[in-house]
Amino acid sequence: MTLRTLLSSAALMTLAPAALAAGEGEGHDTLFTPFTDTVTHLVMIGILIFFAILWRLGVFKTVLSSLDNRAEAIRKELAEVAALRAQAAEALAQAERRQKEADREAETIIEQAKRDAHAFLEAAKQDLADKIRRREAQAEARIGRAEAEAANEVRRAAADAATEAARRVMAGQAGADQFEAAAREIEKALS
Protein backbone atom coordinates (compact mmCIF):
# COMPACT_ATOMS: atom_id res chain seq x y z
CA MET A 1 0.00 0.00 0.00
CA THR A 2 1.33 3.41 -0.88
CA LEU A 3 1.09 6.56 1.15
CA ARG A 4 -1.16 8.19 -1.46
CA THR A 5 -3.70 5.35 -1.24
CA LEU A 6 -3.63 5.53 2.51
CA LEU A 7 -4.23 9.27 2.59
CA SER A 8 -7.05 9.12 0.08
CA SER A 9 -8.75 6.39 2.11
CA ALA A 10 -8.44 8.48 5.24
CA ALA A 11 -9.91 11.54 3.45
CA LEU A 12 -12.88 9.56 2.19
CA MET A 13 -13.56 8.22 5.65
CA THR A 14 -13.55 11.68 7.14
CA LEU A 15 -15.84 13.11 4.45
CA ALA A 16 -18.36 10.26 4.59
CA PRO A 17 -19.96 11.33 7.88
CA ALA A 18 -20.43 14.86 6.64
CA ALA A 19 -22.13 13.62 3.48
CA LEU A 20 -24.43 11.37 5.45
CA ALA A 21 -25.24 13.98 8.06
CA ALA A 22 -26.47 16.47 5.45
CA GLY A 23 -29.28 14.25 4.19
CA GLU A 24 -30.56 12.93 7.49
CA GLY A 25 -32.71 14.31 10.23
CA GLU A 26 -32.49 13.79 13.92
CA GLY A 27 -33.32 10.41 15.46
CA HIS A 28 -32.67 8.25 12.44
CA ASP A 29 -29.99 5.63 13.08
CA THR A 30 -28.38 3.94 10.13
CA LEU A 31 -25.48 1.68 9.59
CA PHE A 32 -23.16 4.67 9.26
CA THR A 33 -24.42 6.53 12.36
CA PRO A 34 -21.33 5.74 14.46
CA PHE A 35 -19.14 7.30 11.77
CA THR A 36 -20.85 10.67 12.12
CA ASP A 37 -19.36 11.12 15.55
CA THR A 38 -16.24 13.32 15.67
CA VAL A 39 -14.54 11.22 18.31
CA THR A 40 -14.94 8.16 16.12
CA HIS A 41 -13.32 10.08 13.24
CA LEU A 42 -10.37 11.09 15.37
CA VAL A 43 -9.83 7.57 16.67
CA MET A 44 -10.03 6.25 13.11
CA ILE A 45 -7.51 8.80 11.90
CA GLY A 46 -5.20 7.95 14.83
CA ILE A 47 -5.36 4.25 14.03
CA LEU A 48 -4.66 4.90 10.36
CA ILE A 49 -1.69 7.10 11.24
CA PHE A 50 -0.42 4.44 13.63
CA PHE A 51 -0.66 1.75 10.94
CA ALA A 52 1.02 4.09 8.44
CA ILE A 53 3.93 4.61 10.83
CA LEU A 54 4.19 0.87 11.40
CA TRP A 55 4.14 0.28 7.65
CA ARG A 56 6.78 2.93 7.05
CA LEU A 57 9.07 1.44 9.70
CA GLY A 58 8.74 -1.97 8.05
CA VAL A 59 7.05 -3.67 10.98
CA PHE A 60 4.63 -5.51 8.70
CA LYS A 61 7.50 -6.90 6.63
CA THR A 62 9.28 -7.98 9.80
CA VAL A 63 6.16 -9.61 11.23
CA LEU A 64 5.32 -11.29 7.92
CA SER A 65 8.90 -12.47 7.40
CA SER A 66 9.04 -13.86 10.96
CA LEU A 67 5.74 -15.64 10.33
CA ASP A 68 7.09 -16.98 7.04
CA ASN A 69 10.29 -18.09 8.80
CA ARG A 70 8.27 -19.76 11.52
CA ALA A 71 6.07 -21.47 8.90
CA GLU A 72 9.20 -22.65 7.07
CA ALA A 73 10.70 -23.94 10.33
CA ILE A 74 7.47 -25.80 11.06
CA ARG A 75 7.51 -27.27 7.52
CA LYS A 76 11.12 -28.41 8.06
CA GLU A 77 10.23 -29.94 11.43
CA LEU A 78 7.24 -31.71 9.86
CA ALA A 79 9.45 -33.03 7.06
CA GLU A 80 12.02 -34.18 9.62
CA VAL A 81 9.31 -35.83 11.69
CA ALA A 82 7.96 -37.55 8.57
CA ALA A 83 11.47 -38.76 7.72
CA LEU A 84 11.99 -39.99 11.29
CA ARG A 85 8.62 -41.72 11.19
CA ALA A 86 9.54 -43.41 7.92
CA GLN A 87 12.87 -44.50 9.43
CA ALA A 88 11.08 -45.79 12.53
CA ALA A 89 8.59 -47.70 10.38
CA GLU A 90 11.45 -49.17 8.36
CA ALA A 91 13.35 -50.09 11.53
CA LEU A 92 10.19 -51.70 12.95
CA ALA A 93 9.63 -53.67 9.75
CA GLN A 94 13.27 -54.77 9.76
CA ALA A 95 13.04 -55.77 13.43
CA GLU A 96 9.89 -57.77 12.68
CA ARG A 97 11.63 -59.49 9.76
CA ARG A 98 14.59 -60.31 12.00
CA GLN A 99 12.23 -61.62 14.68
CA LYS A 100 10.44 -63.86 12.17
CA GLU A 101 13.78 -65.06 10.81
CA ALA A 102 15.03 -65.76 14.34
CA ASP A 103 11.79 -67.65 15.10
CA ARG A 104 12.20 -69.75 11.96
CA GLU A 105 15.85 -70.41 12.80
CA ALA A 106 14.92 -71.37 16.37
CA GLU A 107 12.26 -73.76 15.07
CA THR A 108 14.81 -75.27 12.68
CA ILE A 109 17.30 -75.69 15.53
CA ILE A 110 14.64 -77.28 17.74
CA GLU A 111 13.61 -79.69 14.98
CA GLN A 112 17.25 -80.59 14.32
CA ALA A 113 17.82 -81.13 18.05
CA LYS A 114 14.76 -83.40 18.18
CA ARG A 115 16.03 -85.39 15.19
CA ASP A 116 19.50 -85.64 16.75
CA ALA A 117 18.06 -86.73 20.10
CA HIS A 118 15.88 -89.34 18.38
CA ALA A 119 18.87 -90.62 16.37
CA PHE A 120 21.01 -90.69 19.53
CA LEU A 121 18.27 -92.58 21.38
CA GLU A 122 17.95 -95.10 18.55
CA ALA A 123 21.74 -95.52 18.44
CA ALA A 124 21.82 -96.01 22.22
CA LYS A 125 19.00 -98.58 22.01
CA GLN A 126 20.83 -100.41 19.22
CA ASP A 127 24.11 -100.28 21.14
CA LEU A 128 22.39 -101.59 24.28
CA ALA A 129 20.74 -104.40 22.30
CA ASP A 130 24.12 -105.29 20.76
CA LYS A 131 25.76 -105.33 24.21
CA ILE A 132 22.95 -107.50 25.58
CA ARG A 133 23.35 -109.94 22.66
CA ARG A 134 27.12 -110.08 23.18
CA ARG A 135 26.70 -110.63 26.92
CA GLU A 136 24.11 -113.33 26.25
CA ALA A 137 26.46 -114.99 23.77
CA GLN A 138 29.32 -114.74 26.28
CA ALA A 139 27.09 -116.15 29.03
CA GLU A 140 25.96 -119.00 26.76
CA ALA A 141 29.57 -119.67 25.83
CA ARG A 142 30.57 -119.74 29.52
CA ILE A 143 27.63 -121.99 30.30
CA GLY A 144 28.64 -124.25 27.40
CA ARG A 145 32.24 -124.34 28.65
CA ALA A 146 31.07 -124.99 32.20
CA GLU A 147 28.80 -127.79 30.96
CA ALA A 148 31.66 -129.22 28.90
CA GLU A 149 34.01 -128.98 31.89
CA ALA A 150 31.38 -130.55 34.13
CA ALA A 151 30.87 -133.37 31.61
CA ASN A 152 34.63 -133.84 31.36
CA GLU A 153 34.90 -133.84 35.14
CA VAL A 154 32.12 -136.42 35.36
CA ARG A 155 33.86 -138.52 32.70
CA ARG A 156 37.18 -138.26 34.54
CA ALA A 157 35.52 -139.15 37.83
CA ALA A 158 33.78 -142.07 36.13
CA ALA A 159 36.99 -143.13 34.48
CA ASP A 160 38.89 -142.84 37.79
CA ALA A 161 36.15 -144.75 39.58
CA ALA A 162 36.17 -147.41 36.85
CA THR A 163 39.93 -147.60 36.96
CA GLU A 164 39.92 -147.87 40.74
CA ALA A 165 37.19 -150.50 40.63
CA ALA A 166 39.03 -152.44 37.97
CA ARG A 167 42.26 -152.33 39.98
CA ARG A 168 40.50 -153.58 43.07
CA VAL A 169 38.80 -156.27 41.09
CA MET A 170 42.09 -157.33 39.60
CA ALA A 171 43.95 -157.13 42.82
CA GLY A 172 41.47 -159.01 44.83
CA GLN A 173 39.09 -161.82 44.25
CA ALA A 174 37.87 -162.85 40.97
CA GLY A 175 34.21 -163.48 40.84
CA ALA A 176 30.74 -162.16 40.44
CA ASP A 177 30.79 -160.47 43.81
CA GLN A 178 33.64 -158.36 42.80
CA PHE A 179 31.91 -157.26 39.67
CA GLU A 180 28.83 -156.18 41.58
CA ALA A 181 30.93 -154.40 44.20
CA ALA A 182 32.78 -152.53 41.42
CA ALA A 183 29.49 -151.46 39.80
CA ARG A 184 28.28 -150.08 43.13
CA GLU A 185 31.48 -148.15 43.65
CA ILE A 186 31.15 -146.66 40.16
CA GLU A 187 27.59 -145.62 40.96
CA LYS A 188 28.72 -144.04 44.24
CA ALA A 189 31.49 -142.14 42.48
CA LEU A 190 29.10 -140.86 39.80
CA SER A 191 26.48 -139.67 42.23
Molecular structure report:
The chain is built from four helices and no strands. With about 190 residues, it is mostly helical. Helix 1 (about 5-25) packs antiparallel against helix 2 (about 40-55) and helix 3 packs antiparallel against helix 4. The radius of gyration is 66 Å and the shape is rod-shaped.
Please outline the helices and strands.
Elements: H1 3-23, H2 38-57, H3 59-171, H4 176-190
Helix pairs in contact: 1-2, 3-4
What ranges have pLDDT less than 50 throughout 5 or more consecutive residues?
none
User: What do the pLDDT scores average to?
Assistant: 81
Radius of gyration: 66 Å
Order of SSEs: HHHH
Proportion of beta-strand residues: under 5%
Compute the number of strand runs. Answer: 0
Question: What labels would you give this structure?
Answer:
191 residues; mainly alpha; 4 helices
Short synopsis of the structure:
The chain is mainly alpha-helical.
